[in-house]
Amino acid sequence: MEPERKEAVVDISIERAAVEDAPEILALQKAAFRSEAEFYGDFSIEPLAQTRESLVKQFSTHVIWKAVHGNRIVGSVRARCEGDVVSVEKLVVAPEFQGRGIGTLLMRAVESEFGDKTFVLWTGSRSKRNIGLYTKLGYATTGETRKQGNVTLIRLIKSRGR
């Protein structure tokens, strides 16, 4: 069964996040990942355990974007480039804004920033909605898995310009 598609949010801007956005991004991350934790029965997942200090440190190693609606951050994603490989991490959208295209806008921002690279990400193996989004954007599962607590993660990859 396909998840219900909600009406797209028109007045969203995708911008680079600043370190001052860390508290709001972290709160959003915890709200967005709560449903994943409930689904998997594991509240020890890293996105829920992350501290403000560790997120602030990521501003020096990652490019972090935010999706803004009015004056509120409703989405975020991080990416770290090492050579020709870009690791995409923690794509989050506020629960009440999910299914409206914000995740797609954030992923397009990552891909346009880094261009002809190989993009790699991990998501829960039973998170059908996430897998559907990434597949729609051209990502393919590699068959590689790893465990994080009770969650089996699968690796998805997309190569551009090769």
What do these coordinates show?
There is one protein chain. By secondary structure, this protein is α+β, with helices and mostly antiparallel strands. It has a single domain (12-159), classed as Aminopeptidase. The chain has helices at 22-40, 46-49, 52-58, 102-114, 128-136, and strands at residues 12-16, 63-69, 72-82, 85-93, 118-124, 140-148, 151-159. The chain has a 7-stranded mixed sheet, with helices on both faces.
Helix content, binned percent: 25-40%
**Classification by helices and strands:** alpha+beta
Average pLDDT across residues? 91
Low-confidence segments, given as residue ranges, are none
Q: Determine Rg (CA atoms, Å).
A: 15 Å
Largest pleated sheet: 7 strands, mixed
| CATH fold-level label | Aminopeptidase
Distance between the termini: 35 Å
Can you identify the CATH superfamily? Gcn5-related N-acetyltransferase (GNAT)
Looking at this protein, list some descriptive labels.
5 helices, single chain, alpha+beta, 7 strands, 35% strand, 162 residues, Aminopeptidase, 7-stranded mixed β-sheet
Concise structural overview:
This protein is an alpha+beta fold. The protein has helices at about 20-40, 45-50, 50-60, 100-115, 130-135; strands at about 10-15, 65-70, 70-80, 85-95, 120-125, 140-150, 150-160.
Task: Give a topology summary.
Elements: E1 12-16, H1 22-40, H2 46-49, H3 52-58, E2 63-69, E3 72-82, E4 85-93, H4 102-114, E5 118-124, H5 128-136, E6 140-148, E7 151-159
Parallel strand pairs: 4-5
Antiparallel strand pairs: 1-2, 2-3, 3-4, 5-7, 6-7
